[in-house]
Amino acid sequence: MSVFEGFRFRHVSSPIHRLDPRVKFLFVLVMFVAAVLFYELLPLLVLFFIPVPFVLVAGVQRQWLRSLRGAMFLAVFLLVFNLVFGFLSPGTIPWGMSPIEYASAMFLRFLVLVESFSIFFLTTSPDHLSLALEQSHVPYEFTFAFTTAVRFVPVLAEEAQTIMDAQKARGLELERGNFMKRVRNYIPILIPLIVSAIRRSLELAEAMESRAWGAAKKRTNLYVLKLRRGDATLIIMSIILLAMALYVRNFVSPLPTITSLLPK
Amino acid sequence: MTIIETKSLSYTYPGGTKPSIRDVSLTIEKGEFVILTGPSGCGKTTLCRCFNGLIPHFYAGQLEGELAVAGLKVSEHPISEMAQRVGLVFQNPENQLFALSVEKDVAFGLENLGKPRDEIRKRVDWALQTTGIEELRERAPHELSGGQQQRVAIACVLAMQPDIMVFDEPTSFLDPLGAQKIFEVINELNKKLGITVILVEHRLDLASKYADHVVIMENGKILLNGKPKEIFNSETARLIGVGIPKATRLWQMLQENGVKLDGVPTSSDEATQLLREVLKT
Amino acid sequence: MIEIKDVHFTYPTGVEALKGVSLSIRNGEFVAVMGQNGAGKTTLVKQFNGLLKPTKGDVLVDGVNTRDISVAQLARKVGFVFQNPDHQLFSETVEEEVAFALKNFGFKQDTIERRITWALNLLNLTEYRKTSPFMLSGGERKRVALASVLAWNPKVVILDEPTIGQDHRQKETLRQFIVQLNAQGKTVVIVTHDVEFVAECNPRVVLMTQGQIVADGEAKRILTNPNIALKASIVSPQITQIFQGLTDLGLPTDVIDVSEAKKILIEYLEEERGKR
Predict the structure, then answer these.
(1) Is C194 in the same domain as C119?
(2) Which residues in chain C are closer than 8 Å to A192, comparing Cβ atoms?
(3) How far apart are CA B195 and CA B166, in angstroms?
(4) Residues C247, C125: one domain?
């Protein structure tokens, strides 16, 4: 669950938090594209460290590191997989890199993707995000479903705990038994949870209708996102980053590999 | 001026074997504070849902008879239109708040109506002030207590400036002190803003002092309809198991023993006053 | 039966819900744990069946420390009926629902059959034996939840806010039922903020506010004390309020019941008439 901890938004304010989510997302996309362009260790190392100043300015270091830690399991798996693969068929590794360097590069690429998305979610409140979605002409039904889901996550978590308590108080033992028995033990918890969720949806629908849901074709909004100087700066930075990545990819060839820099 | 009028209203839920409300004929005047009560399953919740159009537009089923609310025939107007005249506050505070901040929740209805931004802002500020929750503006609904959440729900409905507000057992999940606060807020809306209030409640000891019109239902039909003092005093009310205020019950018991008080009390203050008069002579 | 020794409890979120609570509940007592929402009532009673273990202090049930046995073992002795029956109901029939706990506790099949019949009969649910619990009304579902707990005959029954959403008649039935349960020797603990309900049964009241017990004694004494009521932010019963406005006439202040109030007033009037 710690990987989710790393993605959860906290009520903090920093210049990064105040940036327009759409612009932040653009930056994340650029990072994504750049990461996918390269399989050499050196450029990926550079990419890995680019978000770090943003993380520090936003003050979300601890949660960001936690998200990386959460992703470690998969990352290490990738590392090992590529190592094994690399040693078994060295001919497939481009540029004559050592298998270690290649595996490390894949490992880093995965982490670059995780860290970019992580910093996006850590610095964007669900409110802000839904506003961005609305203004990006995503149909309101979807944005509403998104915010409502986020709003009810803590409520459902608490309810799940209450249900577990209620059934434990009737002698249900969740830790005992073999695998099959343990799975079946969760039925008395899942069913009340689902039934409760359905009842809740009905009540929510009633409340929504009673507050004029669907009244006007064009829905207005209390807040509106406006692009400001910081956003413009980030847009320019993203474009430069993308341009540089494309340039390096297409014109700097072959890219120096660590392997080649090591003394023979 | 009559603001709600029903004639022989009957409704059966889809798949229901018998009607939930039968032959309900009721008149409510503008500005009244109505208490609607009765044993569980008597049809009060169903009737509430008729007032703002949830029945028949959201719940299919069979609706018969006539119902006019704020001059509109409910069956002919969509819920979104009725919502601008009739607001409905539900029992569970948690399931009425969908946004991530109180402010956004209160703005929700107005946003749906497509109102311009500055008007939304003004109305949101006004609603928050009127319900006394200005300081909760930026808070997330999950962090609030039940009583606070319910006041937010009231503000959400109030922001649309309806002429009528219906409250379906709004204090079920609150403790007595929390319930009292909600009743005070509702009373303010009625006395200061002139909003017609229909309150469905079991807690008559706390709420009855605010009402000027009481309707008691049983088995889908209206059993009693009139002024609070007459209704709470009636034998019928006690027999069908309505929890009349203890003050009224005491008055009834004293009556049976030949002690006459000069009026029917529904609150403790009234009872104290009336008893004082009798005991001091 | 249940002993709470200087218990402190802090939730993982950091909220300190119990700040040094000590309490003893004897076999066969009828106790109402009262106070505002958030006072710590539910947190306290969840210590009785081990759902929560104290961060400091000890809870002993029948002499055994709750830290030393599992919730399932404790549940055998301490039954807990949750506020919302929908948090428990999951079976296809009422019968299976009531059988659930019995199976968990390892009862034999014929005993299970007998207990189900007995519990359903006790709560007037026999006709619904083969019905799906989801088809029943709110009040009926509450009775199913209650039946499923009483079926295994725990020594202690805890009811968490049993009066919420109930109409007057349902509360009357519940009150009589609880009094009967207690008369049969069960230790009954109810968590409630419904003063009028408690006024009609006159149990032992443990009044809490902000994680501490501020009063412990007879309902009549506690609910009529204006200082205590203020401290715990509770509303006194209406009858008490009436009498509090008549203290200058020499009338008693510890009245919570309507019938008693009537008697006192009539006696007072006859005395007054007698004096003239």
Answers:
(1) yes
(2) 86-90
(3) 10
(4) no
Inter-residue contact C136 to C128 (CB < 8 Å):
yes
One domain for residues A115 and A236: yes
- The answer to whether domain B2-228 has CATH 3.40.50.300 is yes
What would the pLDDT profile of B187-233 be if each residue is shown by its tens digit?
999 999 999 999 999 888 889 999 999 999 999 999 999 999 888 88
User: Are residues C186 and C98 part of one domain?
Assistant: yes
Q: Where are the domains of chain B?
A: 2-228
Q: Are residues C159 and C205 in the same domain?
A: yes
Contacts of A126 in chain B (CB under 8 A): 100
Taking CB atoms and an 8 Å limit, are C262 and B276 in contact across chains?
no
Q: Higher-confidence residue: B133 or B276?
A: B133
- Segment B3-17, tens digit of pLDDT: 999 999 999 999 888
Per the CB < 8 Å rule, is A195 touching C75? no
Of B87, B94, B114, the CB nearest to A155: B94
* pLDDT tens column, C127-154: 999 999 998 988 899 999 999 999 999 9
Selecting from C51, C84, C89 the residue whose C-beta is nearest the C-beta of A169 gives C51
Interchain proximity B259–C164, CB inside 8 Å: no
Contact B50, B67 (CB under 8 A): yes
CB < 8 Å to C49, chain A: 169
Could you read off the pLDDT of C112-133 as tens digits, one per residue? Answer: 999 999 999 999 899 999 999 9
C177 and C49 within one domain: yes
pLDDT at A3 over 60: no
Beta-carbon contacts of C112 under 8 Å, excluding residues fewer than 6 positions away, are: C99, C102, C103
Same domain membership, residue A119 and residue A42: yes
CA dist., res. C263 & res. A46, Å (int)? 89
Q: How far is CA A24 from CA A38, A59, A232, B225, in A?
A: 22, 16, 11, 62
Interchain CB distance below 8 Å, B103 and A204: no
Question: Is 70 exceeded by the pLDDT of residue B166?
Answer: yes
Give me A70's structure tokens: 């959460």
Residues C142 and C182 in one domain: yes
Residue A237 identity? M
Residue A175 in this model has a pLDDT that exceeds 90:
no
Size of interface A-B (CB pairs under 8 A): 106
Q: Are residues C8 and C134 in the same domain?
A: yes
Instruction: At B188, list the tokens.
Output: 């303010």
Chain B residues in contact with A215 by the CB 8 A cut-off are 80-81, 83, 112-114
Contact C192, C163 (CB under 8 A): yes
Percent of chain B with pLDDT over 90: 68
Domain membership of residue A219 (yes or no) is no
Strands (DSSP E) contained in C89-223 are 156-160, 187-192, 204-209, 212-218
- Domain count for chain A: 2
pLDDT band at residue C218 using 50, 70 and 90 as cut-offs: very high
Q: Residue C139: give its domain's CATH number.
A: 3.40.50.300
For C145, the domain range is 2-233
Question: Are residues A71 and A171 both part of a single domain?
Answer: no
Write the pLDDT tens digit of every residue in A200-239: 999 999 999 999 998 888 888 888 888 888 889 999 999 9
